[in-house]
Structures are given as structure tokens and as C-alpha cells.
Amino acid sequence: MMSRPCPIVFDLDGTLIDSAPDIHACVSAVLRQHHITPLPLPRVRSFIGGGVELLWSRIIAACSIDPVHRPALIAAFMARYHDATALTRMFPSVIEVLGRLADAGHPMGICTNKPMGPTLQVLDHFGLSHLFPVVVGGDTLPQKKPDPAPLRLALERLGTVDGNALFVGDSAFDAHCATAVPVPFLLYSGGYRLSPVAELPHDGVFDHFDALPDLVAETLMARPRSA
Ligand SMILES: O=C(O)COP(=O)(O)O
């Protein structure tokens, strides 16, 4: 009996989309409002991946801001972040490759630390919503990646059987989350990763989305499959 194509869950920021310029623009606007000199884009990009709260913990530390301002800063940021898509781009070939994987029958989902509001907005903006029947955001559960709970929820909602699924992401948050579930992890090396590839647990690595369908097939072939 042929087994059905396995579910594939994707991280969002730094994996499918380069959203750092929009996040940087929102952060800079909020800092300017508070008369604080904005940080350079690469610095803000290095703070992305652990969700909004961790992003702001890092900004507050980097700019030596009094933590008493934290709630106001985060509220002002969220008001801008909700529909910030103007500077965001999909990584090359993402739309074509997602279409190929969907046509091959893989059920697909998103597991991101980005809050649900901006996540749904950006998926809609890029015409990706219909590809992802399951979306777990950074505020869906109390836990965020690298805790396994959000990815486990996405896999459960996609009907994963016996861990027969794949997770695709770009960061240490994603790699350690996949290990904790556990589920095989494919690392996109062109995203916001801070650690060397060799230091992140992974079952495959790719630097361009054109390589992903073959990598998916190879990874699944190398593993025992459930019916
Ligand atoms: O909001 C973030 O920090 C990044 O979210 P991600 O999980 O899609 O990389």
C-alpha cells in the first residue's frame, strides 16, 4: 500500500520570508518615538526568532532602556507590526516550490514564533494562506519554540502519524524544537541563523528553495516510513 505524502511544517521569518527590513522599520519608528537612536538592520535581524517578547528584551538591553518602558514599547511596536508587509520579500523560488510540494500532496503548516495577527496578514499578503490549513503562531500557546509544544500542535492538527513529518526552518529555535518533538529537521542556511550549520542539529541542509523537493524526497527515503 502506498503511504500518503507526509506533512511538512515550515517556520516563517527567515525561512519563507525575509521580514527583517519590516521588523527593523517598526522597531526604529518606536525607538525614535521614544527619542532613542535606532539600531542597524543586521543587529535587529540577529534578535529575530524567539518572538516579540525576546526581541524587545534584546533591544532594551542593547539600547540600555529602562525596563519600565517595556509594555509601552511593545504595544507601540505591535500597532505597527500588525500589517507591516511593505518591505518584506519571499526568499527566491518559495512560491513555486511550495506549490510543487502542495501538488505532490504534502499537507503543509506553519509553526512560527511571530504572533498570529501579523502571521495571517503576511500569509494573505503573499497569497500563501490557501497552502497552509494549519498555522500555529507565537501566541497560540503559552510556550514558544524551542519548546516542542507549538510544533507538536501543528503536527497533530495536520494528522501526523508516528512522527512521519518534516520541519523546515532557519534558526537554533527551530532546530532545537525539532529535536525536542522529535521530527526530522531541514535547515535553510540562507535565513537568520546565528550559529554555524555544523552546530545545529539537522537531517538535511539547503541554501536555495529549488533544492528542497529533492532534499525532502532523500530525507524521507533515508527514514523508515509508517503506513
Ligand atoms: O517572530 C519571530 O521572532 C520570528 O518568528 P519565526 O519563528 O517565524 O522565525
Automatic annotation (TrEMBL):
Provide the residue positions that the database annotates as binding Mg(2+).
11, 13, 170
Question: Do you know which InterPro entries this protein is assigned to?
Answer: HAD-like_hydrolase_sf, HAD-like_sf, HAD-SF_hydro_IA, HAD_2, HAD_sf, PGP-like_dom2, PGPase_prok
Q: Which reaction does it catalyse?
A: 2-phosphoglycolate + H2O = glycolate + phosphate
> Which superkingdom heads the taxonomic lineage of this protein's source?
Bacteria
GO annotations of cellular component type: cytosol
- Named cofactor requirement(s): Mg(2+)
In short, the EC number is 3.1.3.18
Q: Do you know which Pfam families this protein is assigned to?
A: HAD_2
Keyword field: Carbohydrate metabolism, Hydrolase, Magnesium, Metal-binding
Query: Which GO MF terms does the UniProt record name?
Result: metal ion binding; phosphoglycolate phosphatase activity
The job of this chain, per UniProt, is described as: Specifically catalyzes the dephosphorylation of 2-phosphoglycolate. Is involved in the dissimilation of the intracellular 2-phosphoglycolate formed during the DNA repair of 3'-phosphoglycolate ends, a major class of DNA lesions induced by oxidative stress.
Task: Name the chain's protein.
Answer: Phosphoglycolate phosphatase
Organism for this UniProt entry: Paracoccus hibiscisoli
